[in-house]
């Protein structure tokens, strides 16, 4: 596709998002199955349903444009999903693996938020107000998913992962600082 106009860029971005969402529809069940915390399994399962609705919105936008959403592969999502597969394949403490799954999922959410934000802005600029509203609804959902994952990480999963660190035998890998130091994130 040639990018000769803002409309071309908009359609190209929508196709990229459509591909990304369809790849995610296949990845989310694997992530839910790999999660050990019931709350995380539920978050992934719930977002699977939300993602189906997001695909439907993109199809609705393409219907109004009179075009097809197919024809482009989102290589960024492909890479992010590959990272998630690597996490799933890792051995280790359940809570730590769940924390890694959250981190992988949040990378996906942030990528999607960037894509939907751009598409929404292009739609508004081009006068596609209905599409801009649909894209904003999806952007809001992606933001909520990210917020849910953050809350889950901060209140449950990361706490349990840190407890797994504390159970590590003396002389572990040396990645933890002394009790008086800061955590890896720089916060105490």
In short:
By secondary structure, this protein is mainly α.
Structure description:
The chain has 188 residues and is mostly helical. The chain has one domain: Ferritin, core subunit, four-helix bundle (Ferritin). It has helices at 6-34, 38-65, 75-89, 94-126, 129-166. Helix 1 (6-34) packs antiparallel against helix 2 and helix 4 (94-126) runs antiparallel to helix 5. The relative contact order is 0.13.
Secondary structure tally, helices:
5
Using only C-alpha atoms, the radius of gyration works out to: 19 Å
Terminal CA distance reads 50 Å
Report the structural category.
mainly alpha
List keywords for this structure.
188 residues, mainly alpha, Ferritin, elongated
Secondary-structure topology with pairs:
Layout (H helix, E strand, L loop, with lengths): L5 H29 L3 H28 L9 H15 L4 H33 L2 H38 L22
């Amino acid at each position: 596709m040639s990018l000769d106009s803002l409309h071309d860029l908009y359609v190209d971005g929508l196709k990229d998002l459509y591909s990304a969402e369809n790849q995610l529809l296949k990845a989310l069940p694997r992530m839910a199955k790999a999660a050990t915390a019931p709350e995380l399994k539920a978050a992934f399962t719930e977002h699977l349903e939300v993602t189906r609705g997001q695909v439907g919105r993109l199809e609705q936008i393409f219907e109004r444009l009179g075009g097809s959403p197919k024809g482009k592969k989102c290589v960024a999502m492909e890479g992010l999903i590959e990272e998630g597969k690597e996490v799933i394949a890792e051995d280790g403490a359940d809570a730590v693996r769940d924390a890694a799954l959250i981190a992988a999922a949040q990378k996906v959410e942030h990528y999607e938020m960037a894509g939907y934000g751009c598409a929404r802005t292009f739609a508004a600029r081009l006068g596609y107000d209905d599409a801009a509203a649909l894209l904003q609804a999806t952007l809001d959902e992606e933001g909520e998913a990210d917020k849910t994952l953050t809350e889950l990480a901060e209140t449950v999963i990361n706490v349990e992962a840190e407890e797994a660190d504390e159970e590590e035998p003396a002389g572990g890998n040396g990645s933890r600082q002394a009790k008086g130091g800061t955590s890896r994130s720089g916060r105490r």
